[in-house]
Task: structure prediction
Amino acid sequence: MGICACALPGHPYQAALLESPFTTLDEFWRKYRIPYLFIKAGNIILPQIMKEMRPIDKLEKIHGLKKILWVYGDMDTDTPVRMGCRFQKASPVPSELWVVPEASHTKCFQTAPEAFTQKAIEFFDTGVIQGDGDTGGRFF
Result:
């Protein structure tokens, strides 16, 4: 839930590389009948708490980030690329969507380790100020 962490006041992050985040619990669990029913019940019984766990809604509250890299596998059926498209479109900060061919859910690095490493290095080396203030140079 990296998006939710970036919405917390005082977080130390300047940039975020997020692999396969889900937009909502409803969308993520839809294909699993029993958990999905629990999520739907939670939406009725505890609507405010459930709203706090919707990364797509938390995105508007992020602050302090200079940029985001959304990483999705084109074979991911749990968090499909369309979720990344929604995040990129809703992002209040500059963001990029990178789709890794042949990668399934959270397997982008394993599928393309050299390309992933190169993309991550380029992302964090470009436009992120190192060591400003009390962040200790942490980028993510």
Notes: Residues 132-140 have pLDDT under 50 and may be disordered. The chain has eight helices and three strands. The two ends are 13 Å apart (CA to CA).
